[in-house]
Amino acid sequence: MIRLSGRVWSRAESCCQFMPIVINTFLVLAITAEVMYLVVVEAPREPGEKHGEWSAVWKATHIASQLFMLGNIMWNARLFLKRSPSIRGVFLEGAGFGQGWKYCYSCETHIPPRCSHCFDCKACVLRRDHHCVFFGQCVGFRNYRYFLSCLLYMSTGLLYAVVLNSEVFMLILQEGLTLHSTMLLLMPWIMLVIGQVTPRAFLFAFIADTCVVGCLCVSAFLLFHVTLMLRGQTTREWYSSRRPYSLGWRRNVCECLGQRWYLAWLCPLIPSPLPGDGIHFQVTAPLAETPSTAAPGPPRN
Question: pTM for the complete prediction?
Answer without folding.
Answer: 0.85
